[in-house]
Amino acid sequence: MKWGTLDMQSRTSLVKREILKTIFRSVGWVSIVYFLGLFFAIPLDIIMNSSEEQRKFLDIDNLFQYNFQIQFVFNISVPVILSVFLFRYTQVKQYSDLMHSLPVKRASIFHQYALTGIMLLISPVLLIALIVLIMYQPMNLQEFYSIGEIFNWVGITLLFNIVIYLAGVSVGMLTGLSAVQGALTYIFLLLPVGLIILVSINLPFYLFGYPDQYYMASKFEKFSPLIALTQMNMRTPSSAEAAIYLFLILSLYCLGLQIYKRRRMEAVSHALVFPITKPIFKYGVTFCTMLLGGGYFGEMRGGMSWLIAGYVFGALIGYAAAEMVLQKSWRVTINVKGLLAYTALMAALFAIFQFDFTQYEKSIPRGNEIERVHFSESFYLYSDIDHEEPLYLKEYENIDLVRRFHETIVKDENRLAEIPGRDSVFIVYELKNGEKLIRDYRINKKEYKPFLKLIYESDEYKKATNEIYQVSADAATKLTITPTGPVTKRAVITDDKDLKEAIEILTEEVDSASFEELQGSDEPYAHIEIFYNDSNKAYMPWYPSYSRFEKWLEEKSLLNEARVNSNDISYALAAKAKDIDINFAAGYSYEEVFEEMRDSKSAVKLTDKEQIESSLKNSEGFIDGDYIIAFYFDEQRTIDIKSFTEKTVPAFIKERLQ
Predict the structure, then answer these.
(1) How many whole angstroms separate alpha carbon 542 and alpha carbon 172?
(2) H or E stretch including 643?
(3) Tens digits of per-residue pLDDT, 29-62?
(4) What order of strands is seen across the sheet that includes strand 476-483?
(5) Which residues contact 367 (CB under 8 A, 6 or more apart)?
(6) For 365-483, where are the E strands, in sequence order?
(7) What is the rounded CA–CA span in Å between residue 466 and residue 511?
(8) CA angle at residue 407 from 402 to 408, to 5 degrees?
(9) Which of 233, 329, 402, 573 could staple 64 via S-S, CB 3.0–4.6 A?
(10) How far apart are CA 541 and CA 481, in angstroms?
């Protein structure tokens, strides 16, 4: 009996060795190709840029920055390719019958294949790291990054590779077709991000104020290793992210093993081998294409009828495509009962959101629940990583103003839905219990001027939105004024006394600025940059309404250099917008507009310096007025296009264009 056991163990070990040889013969090339790709991307690039002259232009501080695009392509493709070819024996009948007839348990076969695949992924990465370590001292790579960065690259690369590989392995246990395994692996890895985007695109049609752009831009790369990999040359995963990926690795390995144990051997060449996965796949595809169709038609055409048409069209395409995959034929039979059940479920969901049973739209926190509120024109001002902290209003008066403004918008929902405005209002309530309530609305600011005027003119809002308040006049070292326009001049102030006067005047200008001046369509004369405390900078625009600052610059003989004036312009061409044969909605270039105006008999030419100066002061930067004016700058041989309304057009232009 003992000899029989030893003989069986010997035969099993021999079989396992033969399986290992088979694996290396069939998929070893994937590991070799991966090594060559990484060698080309990193060590070879280091060697090619090893000269002193070339090193001056290198901006490298981690290994991911060497040919990152090449590394990215290999890191997302090699693990999936390896999982497909490695477990191809589960998808070919003769191969499957052979493997499962061997005197080896299923679990043992899975462990041998899966772990060998991980070893084939690890080996090229470790070899590249070893080569870079050997090159580290001789090529003075310490000038760019530490040895720790090399190990960091190894850890991150292996972490993502193994996650993607085991996702491919687990998905491969569900299908009997290699092509479907590859496609489903990427769908599985991208599904969380895809659903977030699709749902976010559609919810604004039902939930008034839903901040779709905010949710789509809020670090969704964390929900997919494929998207997260695109950021690895700029950021590394946090400890929490790394722990989640390690948990995913263990979970996917165990999941793949359990599915493999329950997989029927004869289920080869089937798109999905488990009956329960077929309706999940079919209705999952239908749901996603339905959201895509509805989102597209809703955004492009607008209106509830187009939205529903998009849902119906998208759902039918998705349902038919899923059936073609499952039935492996374009001649499919439709399960009418299943389609009707799906339609009834979607109709119920539609009713829930359409009639706001969740009370999402009317949800406005009470004043005593709010810690602080963010109020701005865009979610970018809240989530922009360049800002240390977003704008917050904490004074009770301002919080109450925002609340009452919010309540008014909600009451006007139906009217705003019919005639949506072009202005955006983004509100974030940060509550005392740690939760957030976020809303985004499209409005016409002119209709809500009473509220906005009080908020924008408050001291708290001005101090939170203007960097000039961060600057101490005594700490300033330099102030530069760069004119808005195609000129190369600028004014520079470095004298301590002048700096102090300029900052005090600019602060007073912002203090006294009205809502109309802050929200007007006037283009800034120039952009001001203030250097203070050695390395800090503050930025602000110089608006035409800042008349005291303009007068001060004139007294200091700096006005000519601080903004564009008639001396910078050779001549100007003016015409009525309706006489210019340019489709502004379809896009245009300044050169096209200028050529059209120059060839037009209805355009007038201005050469008088006083008239040009008056035109400069009265024109607006947006090309949507009743009159168009083109300024020609001789110094740079460039053109600037502006416009007038009927109210702002100078009389001398209007008279000549009658």
Answers:
(1) 62
(2) strand 638-644
(3) 999 999 999 999 999 988 887 666 666 666 777 8
(4) 491-493, 476-483, 526-532, 536-542
(5) 396, 399, 400, 403
(6) 370-376, 423-431, 436-443, 476-483
(7) 10
(8) 100
(9) 233
(10) 9
